[in-house]
């Protein structure tokens, strides 16, 4: 994917700039023609000479001092891809508002090529509403946001904000380039489940949950837009993109049957449905009447659909589970990733304002066995779907 492709590698001024050296080397090893662009602040952490030597191409550092009259337009027009690693809070803000105050932001504004940004900063900065809003704006405009990961940070702190590993950044660049034109998921079969199951008590009543199916439907639409053959198994009556095969179900048992009929053929399984964990053991054959007195409801467990899919998984299949957590979603997500043998877990804190059930927006944490760890802010569900599918693509290309 990267062989012969022109990649502008933007480096902004954070301590993770030292890892951009490795990104540069890996891009060159993959055959890319790398054009490094460093901000003034990046030069306080790393030198232009290092990048020039690795890329065999003079690193640019200024809008004004180079030989070209208009370096940003040349760089922007000629690029097949622009990747910024690390992307600092300032860089993200300037790009989001279109403030071209240095060569790197000017190049970002002057390009029509796909852009990958890899944020890195301290947790407090990453979690600032201003930073999250800028990242959400960029995502909505189609920018691929990769990371940050959670882990040790400079100064001995630990938390979200770490630059994702150089190999993952390069894998993300390859999959974004692979997707240009044809759709990054072209040729893949994607199975999505959506909505909350309804477990009947009698012919007119059920036990259910507040899942609206919006996130699962957004995933199906986004996967179809990227060229996948999509099957959506859903309890929700919501519109879907043309071309998506829809299977309507109601209960966990019906969903299990439909999923197992389609999962063997799927390359990617996204289990976004909120499947009931329990159902009434006995379903009354006719409507329960008040006059008959209080019914005694005994519950039994529903089938664990994801466990059944995992048990018969085939090589090359990517299994993605979803976890609705109450409070910090990370510990629960890490546990589900391990216990359920999944490739990725998309977790959200359904107690947070505006996130999860019934809302048009969501905020997710994505954990994967290859170490991607996305801690996204509040965003609309289509943008969340884009971020989840980006994480799936990065995982598939790095595993
Ligand atoms: N899932 C499933 N079959 C079930 C229940 C859940 O396939 N019977 C799937 C969901 O679609 C989701 C994931 O498993 O992808 C959620 O895992 P689960 O452990 O059931 O999550 P919660 O019910 O949220 O967890 P807990 O009961 O531990 O709070």
Number of helices: 13
**Oligomer class:** single chain
Work out the count of structural domains. Answer: 2
Provide the low-confidence segments as ranges.
none
Q: CATH topology of the largest domain, anyone?
A: Rossmann fold
Overall outline: elongated
What share of the residues lie within helices?
25-40%
Outline the biggest β-sheet.
Answer: 8 strands, mixed
Ends distance: 16 Å
CATH first level of the largest domain = Alpha Beta
Structural class: alpha/beta
Please report which band the strand proportion falls in: under 5%, 5-15%, 15-25%, 25-35%, 35-45% or over 45%.
15-25%
How many strand elements? Answer: 21
Structure description:
The model has no long low-confidence stretch (mean pLDDT 91). The strands form six sheets. An eight-stranded mixed β-sheet has the order 12-11-8-13-16-17-19-20, sandwiched between helices. A five-stranded parallel β-sheet has the order 2-1-3-4-5, sandwiched between helices. Strands 6-7 form a two-stranded antiparallel ribbon. The chain folds into two domains: 6-179, Flavin prenyltransferase-like (Rossmann fold); 189-398, Rossmann fold, CATH 3.40.50. It is 34% helix and 24% strand. It has 399 residues and is α/β, with parallel strands linked by helices. The structure holds cytidine-5'-triphosphate. Cytidine-5'-triphosphate (CTP) binds at residues 193, 252, 271, 273, 275, 277, 302-306, 321-324, 336.
